[in-house]
Model the fold of this input.
Amino acid sequence: MNLLQRTGLRLGFVSFFAAVVLGVVGPAGAQENLAPGSTQRVQGTIHADAGRGMVEMTSRATTLPDNLGQQTAARLQTAEGQAAVQKGDARAKAATGRGVGAADVQAIADQYAGKTVYDSSMRHVKVVRRYMLTLDAKAANGPRVALNMQLDEKSLAVLDAKVSYYPEGKDFSNDFTTDKKVPATVSIDKIERVGGNVFAVSGSFSAADLRPGVMAKKLKGQTLPSVNGRFAFTEVPLRDQ
Done:
């Protein structure tokens, strides 16, 4: 597994772990599922058609409360909180091969208290002279789409791209995804720095013959003939490696 793959796995696990176990963040998480005191804002949208018409999906930035650690400690003392840990442990093992426990939940809560978690972000991987751009959006009670791109560090041209389509946005394990045999096509119409380490980006994408992801047990034997659409983001932060 190369550096790009390891980085992507690490980022995906943090997002998955927080969404499933803490129940406070995740791609376009519903406001009612946020920890009290959290706030959200829209980063951008993805419009995608997977054969049933165009669907709008939203990517959000979630600012977590300063007292998230205290909230989590209290929740872990309840039957509901303990049940959530058990459910999260099972789903984490299925999706990532790694289990989680109450101590892990508390550590994540303490680490992210007062911070902003982004559904979509960009990272500079200096060793391979590329940027990793992830655009992740979800429809309310609908599908989710994740676009993962590798960009040239100088021209910001797309060098490689992967599209993942989740029929059920809340299910982090079951997705249809592209591979090297039938790669995705992503065209960036505009990408520009809009202030500090924040970028705006817009463009389009298409993919055909998507196969179930490695952990997509529910989708085994199925394929997604095609998915295509457009994306427009006004806030994509450049994160530290």
